[in-house]
Each structure stands twice: as structure tokens, then as C-alpha cells.
Amino acid sequence: MTSTMSKEDIVTSFQTFLDYQNTANWDDIQKCIQPSVHFDNSLVQRDAFIAQLCLGVEGWQKQSELANYVVDVGSQAIAAEVINSENERGRQGTAGETLEYREIAFASFADGRLSN
After folding, report:
1. From which domain of life does this come (predicted)?
2. What is the pTM of this model?
């Protein structure tokens, strides 16, 4: 039996996913993701999906912030504008260049966990 989340629950789940990603909390992020996920036109296992999230440009640190969103409770999905900031870590811990960009993320949930 599948559970239906409210609009607020969907937004909270997506925000929690972003928070775990921002803090590189790869152990707890597993709780937010189904065992297999539709990603990039393929069905991938959770660990492979998380490995994809870990990829980044060496020497850069990424932070993602939920800006605007539209939720479809019937399909348990969210379309979200996410603002990403990537900071280049300079030598001896000094801050380097900062790159900011926006992206649109589409995510759907099954039984309260990210599935697509």
C-alpha cells in the first residue's frame, strides 16, 4: 500500500534531500531515496544514484537552495527552481571564485521517498 504525502510533506522531503546533499551526509540521504530510482532515462540503484550526486569538480564545494516550486499532490511530484552556488576552495583554505546558477529539478516520490 502506497502512502500519499501532502504538499508540505513533499516540499519538506525535497528540502531534506537538498540539506543532506549540501552537507555531504550520504548515509542519511539513503533514507530519502527508493532502492531504485529513474534517473537520466535509466533505472539505477540507489548507491549508483548517490555516487552520481557525489560527483563534482575537484576543489569546488556546492550548495543548493530551494527557491520556487510547484507541487502536484496527485502525482506526488515537485518541479523546483534550485539555486546552486559553487565555491572554489583556494589555497590554505581561502575562498576563491564563486559560481551561481539556477536549475529546474523535477522529482517524484513513492512511499515518501525519492523515486524519479
Report:
1. Eukaryota
2. 0.86
